[in-house]
Design a protein that fits this description.
The protein is an alpha/beta fold. The chain is 30% helix and 14% strand. It is globular and about 40 Å long.
Length: 125
């Protein structure tokens, strides 16, 4: 299976020492689970054009320092891409910002946390 990784941000802090870019991190993690996976990256953050979502086998949308409520030139095209991928029944997963933009594109209510931006492992009760 070929996974298209939509890069919407760069790895922060200490994480960037080992994985300067999210696609490298996700490819490494997923390849360890399934050596038959292959990957392509769409550096949306750098202005790369989004591909036709129906032609993708699977999609992963990375984290980002942006929120879905921010104004970037690539945010609305990404929402359209997500809706078209959903309509085409293309498997898709979002991580952090990625799951928020998927929820937003599909009509969910996504809000800015009053606690601010967080990164890393958190434990909740």
């Amino acid at each position: 299976m070929r996974v298209t990784i939509i890069e919407t941000g760069r790895a922060p802090g200490r994480l960037s020492e080992d994985f300067p870019r999210y696609p490298d991190m996700f490819a490494s993690l997923m390849s360890a689970a399934d050596a038959n996976l292959s990957f392509e990256t769409v550096a949306l953050l750098d202005g790369a054009a989004l591909p036709a979502p129906a032609a993708r086998q699977a999609i992963l949308i990375t984290g980002s320092p942006y929120g879905v409520y921010d104004d970037t030139p690539w945010m609305e095209p990404l929402r359209d891409f997500i809706r078209n991928a959903f309509a085409a029944r293309t498997p898709m997963i979002g991580v952090c910002f990625g799951h928020q933009i998927i929820a937003d594109a599909m009509g969910g209510d996504v809000r800015k946390s009053p606690k601010g931006w967080g990164v890393g492992r958190h434990t909740y009760s």
